[in-house]
Design goal:
13 helices, 380 residues, TIM Barrel, 4-stranded parallel sheet, globular, alpha/beta
Length: 380
């Protein structure tokens, strides 16, 4: 049994109510009669810290391993080609897929209210990150106002579980960053970060492959000469060091970036390895992050950039690529770590008394290691 933080003694028994409320974890000798035994690993439900439910209809539409610029161009080009009913059907199917794969909570990126009706059903616990973007300064007030309208629609039904957030350093102007950073409703910030070498080249020199994206969009960025610094160093100064933040992807994160992030106690790094491989065929320097004691969580990204919405599949990819990553460590990122990052650790993420985290049985392990055939099964 993994309780969200560590493996517990082998004879431990989880006591929970029929509706999934954890009562206690006790030695078998104190558990009384009617103990059910399973072969595999019991653990809390998974927390998906980064997904885009509203892009679920794009499954299989965008080619693999084209690189970030061509991926973004394809998503932008395809989004408007689907009817509302097709988008809604994609969201419904994706929600069920996550539930079937043991996911109980999500941090979901929203550019619209497309996912709102589905979320009202309450099958997944959601924190909604209302995304804004725009690198042209004069558009900042209108872009921000549009995001706030979406935020207000979600806030009406999910009070306190929404933020207005920047898309990425390369797509948000300084004026727009300032508006986001000053927004009173933002308990948690999520931001795509260091997605490719091109992002840092853009900030260091004002050039690189990202200019091709903006040319494709008909935007003139000749005014931007770069900052002479890498992207994170260029934009983190907009945010209070105490702000809780989830930095997503981190493919081109370097040791120099971590040095500039000291003094930020509420920072989390979200890994979406299968999406990273789908888009660019490259994974972050995860062993560097672990060695520096960084707080890690896991996401799936969207079905535009992944073959499935399965946190266990992400953990398998990580362990295969980095064999020194212990199963205990990975499960912690996907349960208690994710719940903490999304501010849900008082509800789920661990087998602490009074929580309702969901109970999964992970089958198909080889000893204490994940395998390609490992699969989660929801017990509660």
């Amino acid at each position: 049994m993994f309780d969200g933080h560590a493996f517990v003694p082998f004879d431990a028994v989880l006591i929970a109510s029929p509706d999934g409320i954890v009562q206690a974890v006790v030695p078998a000798g104190e558990a009384g009669e009617g103990i059910e035994s399973y072969r595999g690993v019991l653990c809390p439900g998974f927390v998906n810290c980064h997904c885009h439910l509203e892009l679920s209809h794009l499954r299989g539409v965008v080619p693999e391993r084209t690189g970030l610029v061509d991926f973004l161009s394809a998503v932008i080009g395809q989004r408007g080609k689907f009817k509302p009913a097709e988008i809604a059907a994609g969201i419904l199917k994706a929600e069920q897929e996550m539930l079937d794969n043991g996911i109980v909570a999500i941090g979901d990126i929203c550019n619209s209210t497309d996912s709102l009706e589905r979320k009202k059903g309450g099958r997944l616990t959601c924190y909604n990150f209302i995304e804004t973007m725009g690198f042209i300064e004069r558009t900042s007030p209108d872009r921000f106002a549009a995001a706030v309208r979406v935020y207000e629609a979600f806030e009406k039904h999910f009070p306190g579980k929404n933020s207005v957030v920047p898309h990425a350093p390369y797509s948000v102007s300084p004026a727009l960053f300032q508006l986001v950073a000053g927004f009173a409703g933002n308990r948690i910030i999520s931001m795509h970060s260091q997605e490719s070498v091109a992002e840092n080249e853009f900030y260091l020199t004002g050039g690189g492959d990202l200019l091709r994206l903006y040319r494709n969009l008909g935007l003139d960025l000749s005014f931007f000469r770069g900052t002479g610094r890498r992207s994170l160093a260029s934009v983190m100064e907009f945010f209070d060091p105490a702000q809780r933040m989830i930095l997503v992807h981190n493919v081109d994160l370097a040791e120099a970036d971590l040095g500039g992030l000291r003094g930020r106690p509420n920072l989390y790094f979200c890994l979406c390895p299968n999406a990273n491989l789908y888009i660019g065929g490259q994974l972050p320097a995860i062993e560097m992050l672990v060695s520096r004691g960084c707080r890690m969580v896991v996401g799936t990204d969207s079905l535009a950039s992944n073959h499935g919405l399965n946190i266990l599949a992400e953990l398998c990819t990580l362990q295969e690529a980095f064999p020194r990553l212990a199963t205990e460590t990975l499960l912690g990122w996907a349960t208690a770590g994710g719940a903490e990052a999304l501010g849900m650790d008082g509800m789920l993420g661990s087998f602490s008394s009074g929580l309702r985290p969901g109970v999964l049985l992970i089958e198909g392990l080889a000893g204490d290691r994940f395998t390609a055939s490992a699969a989660p099964r929801r017990l509660l």
